[in-house]
Amino acid sequence: MSFIIGLLSAMFRMATPIIFGTLGEIITERSGVLNLGIEGIMLISAMFGFLATLTTGSQWFGVLIAIQVGVIFALIMAFLVVYLGLSQHVSGLGVTLFATGLAMFVYRHTVGSPTIPPIVQPFQPFPIPYLSDIPFFGQILFNQYALVYVSWALIPIIWIFLYKTRYGLALRVVGENPMAADTVGINVNLTRTLALVVGGALMGVGGAFLTLAHQNMFLIDVVGGRGWVCIAMVIFGNWDPIRGSLGALLFGFIDAFQLRLQSSGFAIPFHLFLVLPYVITIIALIGVARRSSAPAGLLKPYRREEKGG
């Protein structure tokens, strides 16, 4: 029983950065922009969030800094793809490479190359009174980090925003048919910029979670491809926040399970265990990719002067 409780509790923790990143990417792609900069945004946000916490001792201040960094790099992405109309693929990969290099440079410049990496006091589990005392489910669901609860709350909030508000409708119209959106008075460039900003903020929180809750230090491989997994979860969930988050939970379950397999004593190279969640993600993605329906305006730059051309 304790094994099951530990496994399911870890599943929610492992899924949390994926949920934040997936929700951010869904909002971004719903506006018609593919943000391949997510891996770099999560990494540099994780690094600055860690340094802010290392300096001040406040985990929440670190999260705030990570959000700001995510927004800054999202604005860089917006400038490249929304206002300059450059390739979203090339721009996103460029942002990831730039953010990765900058993160390593700033970290080395600030911390140096110590034998033992500096650590911070990470977030501690926040048990919800009474609910955490419920047998079995209490320990799994209600004895988590505060950011885990935040990620759960964001799933229905973003779903309601996308499907039940006029602002969400405007966002989806921009992602499907920016010319039609412009015709009815929706500012396409502003909408896409705001979507990138909100998405970047969520990606920043996902990155901060990795260094301030999941771990208590910064390593250059701390993100470990989770940004790319988030993009896969967007497709897996068919650009829906609930389905995408369920995909994140699947990844979290497999990730938590492989960690327990590593400690079980199997005479198998640990690298095979590490790659297991990504292999399962690819298999699951293949199974649903043909049935997915991307926003019609995704990857297509919009220039208002071409409207009447």
Salient structural properties:
309 residues, mainly alpha, globular, single chain, two-stranded antiparallel ribbon
Termini separation:
66 Å
Tally of extended strands? 2
The portion of residues forming beta strands comes to under 5%
The helix-and-strand class reads mainly alpha
Low-pLDDT stretches are none
Overall residue-averaged pLDDT value: 91
Helix content: over 70%
Helix-strand pattern, N to C? HHHHEHEHHHHHHH
Can you list the strand order of the major beta sheet?
Answer: 1-2
Major sheet size, sense and barrel closure:
2 strands, antiparallel
Q: Which shape, going by the Cα principal axes?
A: globular
**Total of helices:** 12
Radius of gyration, Cα only, in angstroms? Answer: 20 Å
Word description of this protein:
The chain has 309 residues and is mainly α. It has 12 helices and 2 strands. The chain has a two-stranded antiparallel ribbon with strand order 1-2. The radius of gyration is 20 Å and the shape is globular. It starts with a helix and ends in a 20-residue tail after the last helix.
